[in-house]
TrEMBL record:
Stretch forming the signal peptide: none
Pfam families xrefs: Glyoxalase
Name listed for the protein in its UniProt record: Glyoxalase family protein
Occurrences of domain VOC (ranges): 7-132, 153-270
Top-rank lineage group of the source organism: Bacteria
Length: 310
């Protein structure tokens, strides 16, 4: 069993437009845009990152906004709900705010003893704000959301699977422990991990998801550094998983593998961080390009990347 996994590092999804995506995460949810760059494999498409002030692992939501992308069809083999942690007593504020801003499908419920507010993102993305006690993370508060109600970072990711068994065993191998069960949902967490340390598996009888705008592309798990990442990679490969070589993503190093339930997992390092090419005070302001795409800057800015108005 592995002991290097800290919890979530980031969650990456697909969107249909950069401006609407930026507005939702900064102006509606009050997060900070911490990086404006491009997709390594499709540089004509933005890669936008949102999180706390510094982009601390466990707080970072990222998006590939493919212009006018068709909406995905929800199903199994994907992350259905991405959960954010908010302070106790703050859901009333969030319900009023989201309603005022015409956010769709707002619903209150209690799961595993935690009050939460479900809602959709602009492309039908499934989200939840979950009240938690004692979250010590410092939130970003410069977008009209005060510290007493602001999002702290991730709480959890909920995977929808036809068969939970093999993925549950994988999570246990990765250092997660089963916490509880409620109806068709099993909850796992990493003891002594970061505060984004919960994964839920919801077992449902449904067709496989068809990925598109609003779909989660992959979830990434945090490890401290490249040495621990290599340990994880070797252990996964020794267990039979097909794991990619280490890939330099500028702000972290990444490995990827497909889970038995169909969800794409990444293991990402906490180093070097999002301040490697921008001062923390100015994160997310300038367009930052991977070195191999720098020669495309003019054509990307003039032809492909829509200006984002903050």
């Amino acid at each position: 069993m592995l002991n290097q996994i800290n919890g979530l590092h980031h969650v990456t999804s697909l969107a249909s437009g950069a401006q609407s995506n930026n507005d939702f995460f900064t102006k509606t949810l009050g997060l900070r845009r911490i990086k404006k760059t491009v997709n390594f494999d499709a540089p004509e498409v933005y890669h936008l990152y949102y999180g706390d002030e510094a982009g601390t692992p466990g707080t970072v939501m990222t998006y590939f906004p493919f212009p006018n992308a068709r909406r995905g069809r929800p199903g199994t083999g994907e992350v259905g709900i991405t959960g954010f942690a908010v302070p106790k007593g703050s859901l009333g504020f969030w319900k009023d705010r989201l309603s005022m801003l015409d956010v769709q499908n707002i619903k209150e419920e209690t799961t595993f003893g935690e009050d939460r507010l479900l809602f959709d993102g602009p492309d039908g993305d499934g989200f939840a704000l979950i009240e938690t006690d004692g979250d010590t993370r410092t939130p970003w508060t410069n977008n009209g959301v005060s510290e007493d109600v602001a999002i702290r970072g991730f709480h959890s990711a909920d995977m929808r699977l036809r068969d939970a068994g093999a993925s549950a065993e994988l999570l246990k191998f990765m250092g997660y422990e089963e916490m509880d069960r409620q109806d068709n949902v099993t909850r796992f967490h990493v003891p002594n991990g970061n505060e984004a340390n919960v994964i839920d598996i919801t077992q449902v009888d449904a067709p496989m998801a068809d990925q598109g705008a609003g779909s989660v592309h992959h979830i990434a798990f945090s490890v401290d550094n490249r040495d621990t990442q290599l340990e994880v990679r070797k252990a996964l490969m020794d267990t039979g998983y097909q794991v990619t070589p280490v890939i330099d993503r500028d702000y972290f190093y990444a490995i990827y593998f497909r889970t038995p339930g169909g969800v794409l997992f990444e293991v990402a390092t906490n180093e070097p961080g999002f301040d490697r090419d921008e001062d923390t005070a100015h994160l997310g302001e300038a367009l930052k390009l991977p070195t191999q795409h720098e020669h495309l800057r003019t054509v990307l800015e003039e032809k492909y990347l829509e200006p984002i108005v903050d």
